[in-house]
Amino acid sequence: MKISTKGRYALRIVIDLSEHQGDKTYIAMKDIAQRQGLSLKYLEKILPQLVKGDIIEGVHGKGGGYKLLRKPAQYTVGEILRLTEGELAPVTCLEADAETCPRREQCKTYKLWVGLYELINNYFDSITIADLMDCSNVKTELLSDGFEDFARL
Questions:
Q1: Between these two residues, 91 and 82, which has the higher pLDDT value?
Q2: Is 93 within 8 Å of 101 (Cβ atoms)?
Q3: Which one of 7, 68, 83, 119 is CB 3.0 to 4.6 Å from 53, fit for a cystine?
């Protein structure tokens, strides 16, 4: 699994909105682009997806822009990545719409992939945008604990 620029930039956008919303009701796309060093064209692809996913609200016209719908602590990294990346499954047989593999019962690696899938989702769901705003709160211990559990599969 590889997180694309769309997923990484979506996280940066939500963090930027969190850090700069303050007194302003809406933040202009050009301001986000400038602060984050991102092209307006790319933001034009990502922002509507965040609006459609009920992550942010967007208003067009004078005084318009974007704002968060919730507090930073109420957004998880997992929520945003699943919206922009789709499922975070490491192999296709774990995707929700995948057909059941005829070899699943005999597959020696199935539990390995399930364990990794659970690790990925649990880790990303345990980190909020508020945590990312305060880098010292990003949880790395879950990974080391999870790998020990993962190794026991």
A1: 82
A2: yes
A3: 83
